[in-house]
Each structure stands twice: as structure tokens, then as C-alpha cells.
Amino acid sequence: MTEQEVDEIVDQAISHKRNVKDILVEMKDTSELMVDLAYSALLTNSKDIAEEVRELEEKMDNHRYEIEAMLLLSARTPEDAADLSGILHVVVAAEDIADAAEEIADVVLRGVGDHPIYKKMLGEAEEQVVRTKVVSGSELIGKTLGDMRVSSRTGCYIRAIRRGSAWIYDPDRNTKIFEGDVLIASGTKSAVDALIELSKGEKPVTEE
Known about the structure:
The protein folds into two domains: 3-116, Phosphate transport system protein phou homolog 2, domain 2 (Methane Monooxygenase Hydroxylase, Chain G, domain 1, Up-down Bundle); 126-200, Alpha-Beta Plaits (2-Layer Sandwich), CATH 3.30.70. It is 60% helix and 11% strand. The chain has eight helices and four strands. It has helices spanning 3-14, 20-44, 47-74, 78-109, 116-122, 145-148, 150-154, 189-200; strands at 128-133, 157-163, 166-169, 182-187. Strands 1-4-2-3 form a four-stranded antiparallel sheet, sandwiched between helices. A hairpin with a 2-residue loop joins strand 2 (157-163) and strand 3 (166-169). It is globular and about 60 Å long. The model has no long low-confidence stretch (mean pLDDT 83).
């Protein structure tokens, strides 16, 4: 991280755009998603999903810097610092979880999963985990997951949605899809293939 990026995070903390609780909740959601995706990447040997884990770890770093800045600005006495240290311990623990998830993803990114022995030991995974971008022409754009009956039409479970630098964790049927959204989903190979076709507008997916 550059000095300019750190300064921007500190400036954000000073402006009090968010409170510590909001950031801690986001760190919890992010670390949980990272662990889930890291294991999925390992079991399916998905470098795409492993890359998402790596990017999420950078987000966790930003959260830590932001909270540290807020805590430093809030402490006025040694007693304040002692009281706030508990929050810092939680932050460090959450980032430790994120670091562990990144280490799992790094195994995939280093190509260990491409080795024949690795494949033989783990076998073929029935469930696939993919990321697919919603592009112009997709009928998903402007519709909710419920409107499009994505789960029943494709057989996929949408785990998360990345919208720019923001994330939507555990989206539900009321979550609206926009052009450029990146869907993180799991399902059988035929299911994820159907979702990819739907997100790219290649051909309509119909219920059987």
C-alpha cells in the first residue's frame, strides 16, 4: 500500500464517514466470505476465485488501517487506550483469519492444484464455483434475483456480488442486478454454465 493510499484511509477516518461498528461488521462478513471462497477455490482448483480472495485481503488491510486511525484519534488518556485495545485485538484476529484464507488461495494461485497427484488426492469436485460479469445485453440487468428466478432457472446459488469495490454478501431475492456486477456463484457445471450464459446474454435460459 502506498503512502497516499494510507493517507486517504486516515482522512476517511477523520471525517467520521463510518463508525467502528460498521467496519467491524464488514470485516466479519468479508473474512467469512474469504474462508468460504478460499476452500472453494482449493477444492475446485479455481484461480479466478482465488484471485477474488487475494483482492478481499487487500480490502481487509484497508479496514484495519481505518479502524486503527479511528482508535488513535479517539484515545485521549492512557485509560482510553486500554479500553480501546480490546477492539484492536478483535481487528487483528479478524485479519489473521483473512491472512489464513489468502494462504489457502495462494496454494491455488501457485499452481499446486494443477499437479496430477493433487487432482488424484482430491478427486473431481461436483460443485463448481465461478465468477461471471453481467454485461450489456444480459436480461439480468435492472431485475432482482427473485424477478429472474435465478436459482430455479440455473440451479446456481449466488454467494456474493461484487459491485465495483463494494460487496453484497449473501444476496437475496430482492437484490437488484446491474450491468458490471460480478456474480460469485456455485453449482454443478451445467448450472454455472447456464448462469454464465444468462449473465452474458448469450442465450435465454429456460426452466425445464
